[in-house]
Amino acid sequence: MAGDLASASALQCLVEQLKLEAGVERIKIPQAAAELQQYCMQNACKDALLVGVPAGSNPLQEPRSCALL
């Protein structure tokens, strides 16, 4: 009996999730692609993969040490 209640509860949660997803407003793929392309073009100047990272502000660069003693 407890298994039936658990499966009924799981199904009820699934139905609620599907209702939420069905209510999400959708846009057409060409519109989404155009908006994504426009966003990328507007933010290209800030993209570190395109413009690089200034040497002084790169947190991944290994610190240099002086080898002369």
TrEMBL record:
The record's subcellular locations are: Cell membrane
Membrane topology term? Lipid-anchor
Which ranges carry the G protein gamma domain? 4-69
Q: What GO terms in the biological process aspect are recorded for it?
A: G protein-coupled receptor signaling pathway
GO CC list: heterotrimeric G-protein complex
Residue ranges crossing the lipid bilayer per the database entry: none
- In Gene Ontology terms, what is one molecular function of this protein? G-protein beta-subunit binding
Q: Does the keyword Lipoprotein apply?
A: yes
Q: Does the keyword Lipoprotein apply?
A: yes
Alphabetized, the UniProt keywords read:
Cell membrane, Lipoprotein, Membrane, Methylation, Prenylation, Transducer
Against PROSITE patterns, the record matches this protein to: G_PROTEIN_GAMMA (PS50058)
Which Pfam families does the annotation name?
G-gamma
| Record-linked SMART domains | G_gamma (SM01224), GGL (SM00224)
- Family per record: Belongs to the G protein gamma family.
Tell me how this protein assembles: G proteins are composed of 3 units; alpha, beta and gamma.
Chain's role: Guanine nucleotide-binding proteins (G proteins) are involved as a modulator or transducer in various transmembrane signaling systems. The beta and gamma chains are required for the GTPase activity, for replacement of GDP by GTP, and for G protein-effector interaction.
What is the name attached to this protein's record?
A: Guanine nucleotide-binding protein subunit gamma
